[in-house]
Amino acid sequence: MIEPDWPAPARVKSLMTTRVGGVSGAPWDSLNLGDHVGDDPAHVAVNRARLRRLLPAEPGWLKQVHGIRVVELGGNTPEADASFTRQTAQVCAVLTADCLPVLLCDRGGGIVAAAHAGWRGLADGVLEATVSAMQVPPRDILVWMGGAIGPQAFEVGEEVKQTFMDRHPETVAAFTPHPASIPGKWFADIYQLARIRLMHIGVRDIYGGGRCTFSDPVNFYSYRRDGVTGRMASLIWLDQAL
Predict the structure, then answer these.
(1) What are the pLDDT digits (tens) for 142-159?
(2) Is this prediction's pTM over 0.85?
């Protein structure tokens, strides 16, 4: 497990799982938490039960679709890519295996959120939508970015680069030419792209980043690296008021 290193209020609790510590067999070995990737459902259930022992409640699992819909946690499994809550002991969660997991809270410890930001959702505005749904001034929001595919591994085409630049020209700084000089191919820094988008709307306190899922097969699942693989979870919740 990874405990985020960020100055969140004391009642805000958060963590990101690794692939270590579960019962799933290859290629999902071992703490796969995704129930949609072909793993034995019984193994996923055991893995989720192990995670549940660390949490105050069952996570609010989402049906993620690489979109920008944000929901307030309830009792169902909505189709969305971000969730938030103001309620104690409700757990916001997103699943990833290269996409960027983003955890958010306010300085006062009154609201938390989790967002799944693949390149398409990031470009379309899932982080902006999450901040808007929290109804907190952006300057009062803290952000932590979990493990995702790193800038030396995230190869994209010209259309991806152009999609970001059409919205924010300054995102050109997040793209570097392919080292093999392949025309139309770039390496993208998803952490920098997220920072630029967040800072554009006034969020300044941004932490985390730098853990590359693609280059660390011991600890992380990576869809780009392995194809069929498991999923990690990034989770955030409000503990009892201190």
Answers:
(1) 999 999 999 999 999 999
(2) yes
